[in-house]
Amino acid sequence: MLVKMLPLFFLIFSCTKDFQEINTNPNQPVAVQPSLLLRQVIYDYGEQMSYEGFTAGDLLGQYRTALDFNLFDRHDLKSPQLGGNPWPILYTNLRDNEEILRLALENPTFEVYEGPSRILKAYMAGALTDMFGDVPYSEGFQGKDVTVTPVYDNQETIYLAEDGIFDNLEKGIAAIEAYTGTIPLEGDILFAGDLQAWVRFAKSLQIKFLMRTSNVQDNATALQTLFDDADFISANTQNATFDFNDGEPNNFRLARLRIGDFNNFVLSETMDEILTDLNDPRISTLFRPFSNSDAGEFNGLLNGVDATQNAVVLADFSLAGTSFRETTSALDANFMTSWETHFLLAEAAARGFISADAQALYETGVTQAFDYWNTELPTNYLSTDGAFNNGDAIENIITQKWIANIINGYEGWIEYRRTGFPRLKTISASLNNDLLPVRMPYPAEEQALNAVNYEAAAARTDGNSINAPVWWDSQSEN
After folding, report:
1. pTM of the model
2. Bigger pLDDT: 316 or 22?
């Protein structure tokens, strides 16, 4: 089956940014107000996936390297260590979000929650299927009273069918635009109840998922309409994010772990080379000079350290910047941003999907990405090393998006699979025949507890292989 069915969560919060501990009765389901559940879903998903993105997604995306002979970093993805198990996070929050949607559809008092819950469902389902491919979807979020052995829906259906990703985005927008009630949206820690901000979020997600599926279907007309309407996230002040704090319990989780766990993650050689070749000052924001440096230099390590090699010396490699541990109020839990939207549109223009100025969109994306990471953009960056036409334009767009997505490491890996950019490296000691994985494997619990449906899905993925591409993955540069 999926993860064990959990009771619904409820929270007590003092204000929008003051998140508190989850209070749960493990023995009895409880009725819950959708406002409390919405707050819980947004916070739990954002907090947990930000941590997952750092400890596992960043290894797959080659932002960071693990020093502890990490099997996940060597591409044995069935061996998660500090991270590498997003399945229960996704299903727990998708099930809780489904309860918000149910309440909204059944009770007119909660009608205002229909749009946001549909948009969140599309967002989280996209993350789930883009990582794993075919997954339990139509029967996956209903709870144990419906089924504990849900079927696996194919990814194309999850994207395109009724109640799929695109359908829920359309219905979410329509529900918000049709809402005439006076009851406000409460528990919204992304947009403080601003329904039009949810519409912009949904339309940015439409752009994202249209580009994600652009290798397998013609999405040009839909993309042009969205660009012309210009109702997407277009400024960093509109980003779908919430801030971490500097103090417990609402700081970034790496700040709460022991120093040995934090010291396990250092700058990847891939990230080091890309930022160095670009003369990109964000290296000083995202990482620290290595301790053995005499001149404030940075040094990265090739992913996939082999346990049979000589021990790696921590002082020879660059740790994550202070915002990931000492001053985490500088970090956001990132759902969708303006710079990501502009990079997607720049790619659409460069590929001829929309009629627009690809260079202008790219330069806006770069400028906003530097601002997002609190780094001053060098005056000549966009005319020299970071110029749109300095090499291949598509590669430049995707690489800049990849750099900025360091807080969403899985996202950088997913976009690499779609585009082949940036050019990730063959790792040091691969446990996957020097192949870079193109999907996450189903967890072992599925084989044990949902055997019939698991076996059918495994048969479609060459035995649950991490080398079996998902539906939209038609590029072959890996």
Report:
1. 0.92
2. 316
